[in-house]
Amino acid sequence: HTRQVHTIMNTLDPEGTDLSCLARRRGLDVWDKFCVPKLGQKKLTGNSIKTYLRSLEYFFKFISKGLLYNKDLLDQTQKNSILKLRERLPDYRSTIHRRTARQVTTRKVDEAISRILPSDLRQVEASEQAQTAIKVLGLAQEEKRTFTSSEFLAIRDYLLVTTLYENASQPGPLENCLISRFNQATYSESTQCYTILVDKHKTTRHQGPAELTVTSRLYSYLQIYVLKVRPHFAAQGEDMFVKVDGLAFLPGTLGKRVSQYFLQAGIRKDVRVTATNIRKMVSDKAYEMSPTKKGLIHHHMKHQERTADANYVIKINAERASRALEI
């Protein structure tokens, strides 16, 4: 939300140092200089603009309570203008929704046509990037050696991408996975899998800690990475997946590595593969399962069933449509 509010303010007044740009012309600049140009030039979709306005509304809520801003940067007249603008923001969102409803329909049709399939994910293991990572992991297990930056990136990206898609996880649990929790992973005899708990992620407040479950094979690869590869680039720190400089990923940036990995591997060049696309694939498959199995999958993915049905299940499904016709 903070980044989005900054983007709006930088658009209204790139050289500004206070909050006055939000009150200018009784707040009309938000519509005239941000919403209309971004929409007209197709720099942002309607849904994206609505999220920006929602973030701005949250910020205004704090301003109304006298919180989270320097009162020297906003006089009472400007504050009153901002509070009146806050009352109009829902109308702005409604207007954008009506004007861009077709964009949503077009996106859903495009998603249905270009959806990610399980066969696409199976190509990861056969890719050159994966084979390189597995080869270097084998060498690391057998002998003491140093690693080049490219070898480190090959191993790290293979492990984080594989862990992410096997769990249909959001990037957050991977960003916040800790070595101490990895060492405390629980082994299940019945499935021969290890489960790593992650304390912090997007829906921790409502869903509790996230679980990253990996096969014994993948867990052994992760052990080699933690014990023999990662220390060459990050001698300290708890974050399991780090950058070449040894620092943790900034929040919200690890997902880019997922898309880049599929692009470099030549898998589904026709579409940008993201964690969300993968989650939509899994949710779509879960949609037709029994309530018990569906509940287990949604719990593991750390969202509610209604969230999946509203945002992840691809409603335009030719196979389901044909079955409905038969009925």
Describe this structure in words.
The protein is mainly alpha-helical and 327 residues long. The protein has helices spanning 2-12, 29-40, 46-64, 76-99, 101-113, 118-126, 128-142, 149-167, 171-175, 179-183, 204-207, 216-229, 255-265, 275-286, 291-301, 305-311, 318-326, and strands at residues 186-188, 193-198, 210-215. It has a three-stranded antiparallel beta sheet. A hairpin with a 4-residue loop joins β1 and β2 (193-198). α1 (2-12) packs across α3, α3 (46-64) packs antiparallel against α4 and α7 crosses α12 (216-229). The mean pLDDT is 88.
Helix share of residues?
55-70%
How much of the polypeptide forms β-strand, as a percent range?
Answer: under 5%
Q: What is the total tally of β strands?
A: 3
Helix/sheet category: mainly alpha
Order of helices and strands: HHHHHHHHHHEEHEHHHHHH
Spans of at least 5 consecutive residues whose pLDDT stays below 50 are none
Distance between the termini: 46 Å
Give the count of helical stretches: 17
Provide a compact summary of the structure.
By secondary structure, this protein is mainly alpha-helical.
